[in-house]
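so my prof wants the structure for this chain in the tokens format not the other one, which i didnt know existed until like an hour ago. anyway here's the sequence
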Amino acid sequence: MFTTYGGHSNVTAEGAPGEFGRSRDELGGQAYAPPAIERRAVGSYSVRPAVRAELTVDRIVAACEAEFGFAERSGDAVSSRYGAIDSLVVRPGKGELLVELRMNPKVANDVAGETVRRYNRFLATLTGYTAKERAKKAQKAAKAAAPAG
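here's what i got, hopefully its the right format
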């Protein structure tokens, strides 16, 4: 029998080495499972020039409270959570919005959908760019960063 953990093949038979180079005998009869990886995304979103002067910690707090119903300020950072968002930490940068996001992939689809809608509205409020405009900017940046060939 073939077992997969997180996309990695593993030990498949008694005494037969798997991808990780250890047999079930060495593991006490148990299949190796890699440690859980924390799903955290850290990113920056460019802010429309007309909105940059308005990007303050107070405005971030107001946007978090409007979309997620909760905001906690700590220095220049604002943290919040809602639905599938386990942790959201947002800071203003120089012409950009710095975001650290940790999501829970084990929520119901309706909760995930509502969370995405609120998160997109939150980003649109603070950056001045819609989700479609942010996606186009990201594609353009990826093409510019890709090696020519």
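also thought this was worth mentioning. Residues 1-24, 32-39 have pLDDT under 50 and may be disordered.
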